[in-house]
Specification:
111 residues, 7-stranded mixed β-sheet, 51% strand, mainly beta
């Protein structure tokens, strides 16, 4: 099973931006779809964005126009660029590929 490592989380004020990165332990991203999910305290995990192996994105309605998912297959990395962050975006964000989940990275947005 591949290990996924997320980075880029942190604390920002509302309206701020962050870029999350996800890299696997071995070079498999270029052939696979990858997703970002999140889980806020007391809530279920929810899909944020997905990107296919050929870079076709899908977004949850609540992030459309604010978040952008992208991939750099040469760097074997998937990104989640987040703009216009809101307090309700506060959550642990996870990178997912197949049945493999990363350890998550915390995003905290203050009002």
């Amino acid at each position: 099973q591949v290990q996924l490592v997320e980075s880029g989380g942190g604390s920002v004020q509302a309206g701020g931006s962050l870029r999350l990165s996800c890299a696997p332990s071995r070079s498999i991203f270029s052939r696979n779809n990858v997703g970002w999910y999140r889980q806020a305290p007391g809530k279920q995990r929810e899909m944020v964005a997905l990107i296919t192996y050929d870079s076709i994105p899908t977004y949850a309605n609540f992030v459309k126009g604010r978040f952008t998912i992208s991939r750099d297959n040469a760097k074997n990395t998937v990104y989640l660029q987040m703009y216009g962050l809101k307090p309700e975006d506060t959550a642990v964000y996870y990178c997912v590929q197949g049945s493999s989940w990363g350890q998550g990275t915390q995003v905290t947005v203050s009002s």
